[in-house]
Each structure stands twice: as structure tokens, then as C-alpha cells.
Write a structure and sequence with these properties.
The protein contains six helices and 16 strands. It is about 25% helix and about 35% strand. By secondary structure, the protein is of the alpha/beta class.
Length: about 250
Amino acid sequence: MIMMAEFYDVIVIGGGVAGVKAATVIRELNKQVRIGVITKEPFIYTKMGLNYIIKSGSSIDLFKLMIDANRIGIDVLVNSVVTRIDFEKKTLKVKQNGTFRIYAFDKLILATGGKPIIPDIEGVGKIGVLTFNDYDNAMNIKNYIRSGMNIYIIGAGLVGLLLAEALKSNGLKVTLVDALPGIGLTIVEEEISKYLVDKLVSRGIRILTSAEIEKILGDRKIKKKVRKVIINGDKYEADLIVFTIGITP
């Protein structure tokens, strides 16, 4: 069943910070236009807050963006997946909770972000290899972790750093791995990188820099489950591997 078309002056596809910011700025410039934000997620949120889902003893209002958007008259269409865009007719076909709806627009903004990068190495399809890019990823990690686990985070950018700190707060054994000679070098200077290394090490987080992950090995009994990882030729015990090396469109 397909519902009749509903019109918006502006539709933003993507409920991340960029999409919500675009919608908010448009609202500030024009109080009259109808604005809709379409997201496949159950709500809109900032990804920089996802670590608080995992961090022990912490909480964050992930619904703040949702509340703020609704407060200024932006419609947020959650659990919605765009299946077709007709640029000539200026319409979208959207699947919402099993029902297809048609939305018409005057202006369309694409702010869908990207997919996590996972290197093409042996073993990446095993149970216990995850990414950290959205709400579902965060919940998968939270539900997977157990006391005493050895966790390897591959990628020491901002997301990797936040995740490492969150996991360590749960008393887990955390190793942060990066191909660069320092951590956070894509976002900070070398001096600050050294400071971050000292701080993380003092908190019990192991750091491996100039390091490349080469292979992921399975458990002897359960071959599909992560048990070890090979980095720069050395073999390490591992229960969970999380890739945070970036995203691709």
C-alpha cells in the first residue's frame, strides 16, 4: 500500500549532525517553509555522544537533537528509508514501518554520511568484528562486551579515542591501534598526540602505533568467532575488534 504524497518545501535525507544543522539553519532563515528530515534511525542524534551508551556510569540525552528539531517546527521522519528519488517529479518513495509513502519536495538535501571502512583482510567476517558509526553499532558493542575481554580498536581518530575511553571505563582490556606514528594525528599536532598517549597509557589503555592489522584468527572450537589478531607480524589474544578507521560515501 502506498500513501498519498505529502509536500515539504525542503526535505533533508540524513539525520546526522550535518543534516540536522542544515535543516536548523534553513528554519532560522525562513520561519514559514515546511521542513522534513528523513532518517532510518529511531531518532536523530549526534554521533559524538554514542560513546556514552557504552561508557559505564554515564548518560547522555541522545534525544536532545530530536526535541530541539521538533521545538522549532522541523518534522523528523524516523525509521524511514528512501527507496526511490524522482528528480523530475520531485518526489521520494519512502518505506516507513512496512508502509510506503510518497513525499513531494521543492528542495532536497542529501546528508546521508557514509559507511564504515573495513579493510579487506582475512577474518573480517568473523563474529566479534564490529564497527562504531551509528546507534545500532553502539548497541551491538554494548551487548557484546563481557568482563575481562581483550578489545582492539583499529583507528585512533576522535571516534576511536572516545570509544577506547568508554570501554576502559567498563574495566575492559583495551588496545588502540593506528597505522600512523602517533594517535589522533589526523586531528591534532604531534605534541598533543604525545600528551594523549601519556594520558591514555596512564589510564591503562595500550597503544600500538605505526601498526597494521594483517589477519584475524578464529577460536579453535568456534572458527567463526574472533580469538586472535595479527598486527605487524605479532599475534595477540582478542575477543572483540572494532574498526574506527573512517567512512566512505
